[in-house]
Automatic annotation (TrEMBL):
Signal peptide: none annotated. One of its GO terms (biological process) is polysaccharide biosynthetic process. Keywords: Exopolysaccharide synthesis, Membrane, Transferase, Transmembrane, Transmembrane helix. It is an enzyme of class 2 (transferase). Its EC number is 2.7.8.40. It comes from Pontivivens insulae. The gene is tuaA. This is Undecaprenyl-phosphate N-acetylgalactosaminyl 1-phosphate transferase. Residues 212-381 form the Bacterial sugar transferase domain. Residues 3-162 form the NAD-dependent epimerase/dehydratase domain. The lineage of its organism: Bacteria, Pseudomonadati, Pseudomonadota, Alphaproteobacteria, Rhodobacterales. Belongs to the bacterial sugar transferase family. InterPro entries: Bact_transf, Epimerase_deHydtase, NAD(P)-bd_dom_sf. Pfam families: Bac_transf (PF02397), Epimerase (PF01370).
Amino acid sequence: MKIIITGASGFIGRQLVPRLQAGGASLVLVGRDPERLKALFPELPTHDYNSLPTLEGDLLVHLAVLNNDQPGDEAAFDAINVALLADTLASAKAAQVTRFLQVSTIQALDEKRVDPYSVSKRKAQAILNAVDGIEVRTVFLPIVYGDHFSGKLAKLERLPRWLRPSALTVLSALKPAVHVDRLATHILSGGEGGILTDGQVQNPAYKTMRLMMDWGFALGVLIALWWMLLIVWAIVAISSPGPGLFVQQRVGKGGRNFPLYKFRTMTIGTKQAGTHEVSAASVTGVGHFLRRTKLDELPQIINILRGELSLIGPRPCLPVQTELVSERRARGVLDILPGISGLAQVEGIDMSEPIRLARRDADYVALRAILLDVRIAIATARGRGSGDHVNE
């Protein structure tokens, strides 16, 4: 594979280039200062941007960026992150480069961020979304690290080498991060665009903190609110025919079914289907209140204590929702425990949109970290994420 790289003199580029070389790629470097590139990588051909339309390559990896840790106003960020990207894209098309990979930031995915850096990255993405004539992909990265640390992780350089891995484990449990090795592998394998992180599957600090959150919540509810649970159970059982608790099979981690416990909010005999497929007339009078206040979810502390459910995670669906199960399996969503509340839920995405829901669930799997989990829990407690809406 012949790869053209722009912005190779930056933090990511300096660590990425040797890894791509080691992976067997043939590299050509492009930048505003070819002499600096030649000093950093004397064995590689270097060019300025004016030469780009004449170069040959299978892939162009665009790393050139004005980062958020650098000074500049909106015009300065737009000049590099928007205008330069547009020019580079046009040059890549003129050179008949097959594929264009934009390396961006997860900050661009947060519409609430209105700083010049984030706004400029969203403008750049809009240009890429509208282009034709070349295959375009974008990979969104969180904090990047490798042989060295920079940005928010720069303080780790001050620590003794033996202590850095442990400190990094804790910090990446709080906010997502990605090793440059993963980016190199992604590029060499021709990976799709999307969010790229290390994930938390192998992070013992994240696992420990999540377990503390889950058990702290479950035991806290059990110890402090046991009396309320009994009262709600009795009211549900008395107010309409049927038991106080409702047990329903849901799809959990690994695609295995498990019994989910809730206070019953619907009449006996309601069909087993997604809530959006069930008539509002099936919801009992007490059920409307329980669903609105989310009190119907409290018995799921049983599932948490049994290790079948977490406080935060993708909401578990029914086995009959085969399209959603298939989409989640393909995107790795079933690799983690489902949750009582989740990112898609607080954003108002429910199971009536299976593909959109599975995509956002996959985003959560990539982005999950303790600080995000806490934000989702707070948003849920404040009333966001009312769950799937019944069919009116």
